[in-house]
């Protein structure tokens, strides 16, 4: 969150963050409407997804939330892009291994978050990392640094959680 290296070790002098759970798929329903109803309009948010088959963990941090906030840039199909220079996405090989984390910082700050009505739950970039119903997608695009060696990942969501992040 502080733009530190992924392998950085925190010390007592570092700022601490609080994470307040606002959405859990197994409790609130894993779908776009439920996610958006619980998470939109919030600020500084973190989303975590556990993939069903592999138990890999994927996530993203947005300092502006997932929509309806900040400066926006309209593009084709009434899509709204939101600006943020400190968003990032990430992946863990599994829920037990924090050493093999990959982090992808936002490259195109003008298109950090995409909103297209109710078509997805959340969308970092234009599909760099997004949720659509019970499926998530990760694509190599020029909006975020890559978090995968693969060009495109599609996975089924086992669990999804979103948190409001406060300092």
In short:
It comes from Rhizophagus irregularis (strain DAOM 181602 / DAOM 197198 / MUCL 43194). Residues 1-166 form the TLDc domain. By secondary structure, the protein is mainly beta.
Core attributes:
mainly beta, nine-stranded antiparallel β-sheet, three-stranded antiparallel β-sheet, 7% helix, globular, TLDc_dom, TLDc domain-containing protein
Helix and strand arrangement:
Blueprint: E1 18-24, H1 25-28, H2 32-39, E2 45-51, E3 57-62, E4 72-74, E5 80-82, E6 88-92, E7 102-105, E8 113-115, E9 122-124, E10 129-132, E11 135-139, E12 152-166
Antiparallel strand pairs: 1-12, 2-3, 2-12, 3-6, 4-5, 5-8, 6-7, 9-10, 10-11, 11-12
Word description of this protein:
It is globular, with a radius of gyration of 15 Å. The protein has 2 helices and 12 strands; from the N terminus they run βααβββββββββββ. The protein has one domain. β4 and β5 (80-82) form a beta hairpin. The protein has helices spanning 25-28, 32-39; strands at 18-24, 45-51, 57-62, 72-74, 80-82, 88-92, 102-105, 113-115, 122-124, 129-132, 135-139, 152-166.
> How many individual domains?
1
List unreliable stretches of 5+ residues: none
Q: How many β-strand runs? A: 12
Q: What kind of oligomer do you see?
A: single chain
């Amino acid at each position: 969150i502080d733009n530190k290296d992924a392998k950085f070790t925190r010390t007592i002098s570092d700022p601490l963050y609080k994470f307040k759970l606002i959405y859990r798929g197994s409790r609130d329903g894993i779908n776009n409407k439920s996610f958006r109803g619980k998470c939109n309009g919030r600020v500084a948010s973190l989303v975590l997804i556990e993939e069903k088959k592999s138990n890999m963990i994927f996530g993203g941090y947005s300092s502006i939330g997932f929509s309806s906030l900040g400066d926006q840039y309209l593009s084709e199909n009434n899509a709204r892009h939101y600006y943020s220079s400190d968003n990032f996405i990430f992946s863990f090989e599994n829920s037990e291994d924090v050493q093999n984390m990959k982090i992808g910082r936002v490259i195109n700050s003008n298109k950090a978050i995409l909103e297209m009505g109710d078509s997805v739950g959340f969308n970092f970039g234009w599909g760099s990392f997004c949720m659509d119903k019970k499926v998530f997608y990760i694509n190599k695009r020029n909006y975020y640094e890559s978090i995968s060696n693969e060009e495109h990942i599609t996975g089924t969501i086992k669990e999804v959680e979103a948190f409001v992040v406060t300092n």
